[in-house]
């Protein structure tokens, strides 16, 4: 299975980019044990449209156009469900067991996700009702994906 993290906005150089890169590298290496053959990052630019609704629609269209047609989508949105780490690992394991070719983890822009993208998503997930900066959400998503792999491989990284 290919894992894609698709996000609105670009990571700027600095400690956040380094930390995100560290989790991506860990995920790329350890993910092979559970069938994750590739970890890819897709970044799109934020829309410059005048209204938030149009910006979200533009960004959704751009994100979806960069993904394979038949991929599974987990969208991160404040209105989503907040699984704990073991539940998130189970969600990933289910996709692996079902033979999903591509799992896309989607992070919206400052205005959030368009309703059409949330509706297209197979799962809408959240890190709670708090609002986080884009760069931190990217780190959280990569870390949770890495943590999920360590849970699935019984690696001692995760502790209950």
Layout of secondary structure:
Elements lengths: L1 E7 L6 H17 L6 E7 L7 H14 L6 E10 L3 H13 L4 E6 L7 H6 L2 E3 L8 H19 L8
Parallel strand pairs: 1-2, 1-4, 3-4, 3-5
Helix pairs in contact: 1-5, 3-5
Task: Give the tags.
single chain, 160 residues, alpha/beta, Alpha/beta knot, 5 helices, 43% helix
Report the order of strands and helices: EHEHEHEHEH
End-to-end gap = 27 Å
Largest sheet: 5 strands, parallel
CATH superfamily: SPOUT methyltransferase, trefoil knot domain
| CATH class category | Alpha Beta
Q: Which assembly state applies to the chains in this document?
A: single chain
The secondary structure category is alpha/beta
The coarse overall form would be globular
Helicity, as a percent range: 40-55%
Uncertain segments are none
Structure description:
It is a single chain. This protein has helices at residues 15-31, 52-65, 85-97, 115-120, 134-152; strands at residues 2-8, 38-44, 72-81, 102-107, 123-125. The model has no long low-confidence stretch (mean pLDDT 95). It is globular. The chain has one domain (2-152): 3-Layer(aba) Sandwich (Alpha/beta knot), CATH 3.40.1280.10. The chain has five helices and five strands, in the order E-H-E-H-E-H-E-H-E-H. Helix 1 runs parallel beside helix 5 and helix 3 (85-97) packs across helix 5. The protein has a five-stranded parallel β-sheet with strand order 2-1-4-3-5. It has 160 residues and is of the alpha/beta class.
């Amino acid at each position: 299975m290919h894992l894609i993290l698709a996000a609105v906005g670009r990571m700027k150089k600095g400690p956040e980019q380094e930390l995100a890169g560290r989790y991506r590298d860990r995920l790329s290496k350890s993910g092979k044990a559970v069938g994750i053959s590739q970890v890819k990052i897709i970044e799109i630019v934020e829309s410059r449209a005048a209204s938030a609704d149009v910006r979200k629609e533009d960004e959704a269209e751009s994100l979806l156009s960069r993904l394979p047609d038949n991929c599974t989508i987990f969208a991160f949105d404040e209105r989503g469900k907040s699984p704990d780490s073991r539940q998130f690992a189970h969600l990933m394991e289910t996709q692996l067991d079902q033979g999903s070719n591509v799992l896309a983890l989607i992070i919206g822009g400052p205005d959030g996700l368009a309703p059409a993208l949330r509706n297209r998503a197979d799962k809408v997930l959240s890190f709670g009702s708090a609002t986080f900066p884009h760069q931190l959400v990217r780190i959280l998503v990569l870390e949770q994906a890495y943590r999920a792999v360590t849970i699935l491989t019984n690696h001692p990284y995760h502790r209950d």
